[in-house]
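I hope you will forgive my troubling you with a question about protein structure. Here, with my thanks, is the record as I have it:
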Amino acid sequence: MSLLALVRAQQYEGDPVNLTIPDAVGAEKTFFRIWDAEGQPTTLINYFSLPVSTGQRPPAEGLQRIVIVLTGTLRDAWNYFADMRNALIVATGVDPNVNDTPWWANDDDFQLAQAQHSSGTKRIYPNMKQIVVSGHSRGAQMSIRYAVIGKQLPLHHPEPDGVKLLYYTGNPSSFVWLNSSRPIDPGTCTKYDWWSEGLGNYTNTYNTEFVQGDLEVIRKCFEKRDVAYARGLNDFGKSDDDCPNILEGKPVSQGANRGERFYNFLTYFPPDASDTVDYVEGTGHNDAAMFASDAGIHRLFLDNFYGDGSRHADFGPRYADHSGGGFLKAEIVLDARQIPGDNPHPESFRT
């Protein structure tokens, strides 16, 4: 790293934290400075790539891509780092460079860390082309919610030399719904549309004015984001139907399980041409398998690597659309549905 880049990077360097958490092969524990709800500096612990072959951080000016990994419910960042690193080895066959996996000490850290990784990226990494905010399971719930309510960053609409931001969302247990309608009657569950299953009753301090504002504005901003939706076709977990579970992130009104909720969200809020929808056969609720699949490798590591916007077509089996075009026509829904409420093969409108 050049002296100038080092000086610029120091403003993002947090205070070391003395905690006993597991090591991860190919990673160093780093400390990023973020700001809490009162505007006070605090530290977020990260597992940051440190190539085994050199034992040194790669030069910042040589990096073109950063993959940020959001962990699942267990907050086992060391395992998620290892799974993402192994997927990158599958993709490249070499010792990986940049993979950043934050460690969340508690739920409050989720809110504190949102949108703060990207500040100053182009100044520190002048040749950066792509940032991927990736998540599986609960991490995917965070990545899709960040895509919906995240602050507008210059990265979202880059000039020719800018940085693109992709939100990888793999097997989330729920989505944040963009209106008050639902595919399943919530019945007596009056809080079904509260954050974070909906946009109502939002009491967090992050981007509050935006989230409590016009729903149409929120939807239009979300449509501008690039989202990579991914689902393992064997993942039908989280089939809870108890009303109080809504407050625990188990939304009965979105569908009976992950498969139904994934299908229903894409039906109500269809992806556009900037998004991808991938289906991974033979895979259930497994982050390592999702990351290392052909779909995962392209979305996480290969698509737009040179900043030219190139990407692989959607992965997974598709049924032909005989209904006159469009996405999720009624005929396709009925033909392709394998279980009630779930269609693992929606028609792709991309070639």
User: Anything to note?
Assistant: The first helix runs from residue 3 to 10. The radius of gyration is 20 Å. The chain has eleven helices and eight strands. The CA atoms of residues 38 and 132 lie 28 Å apart.
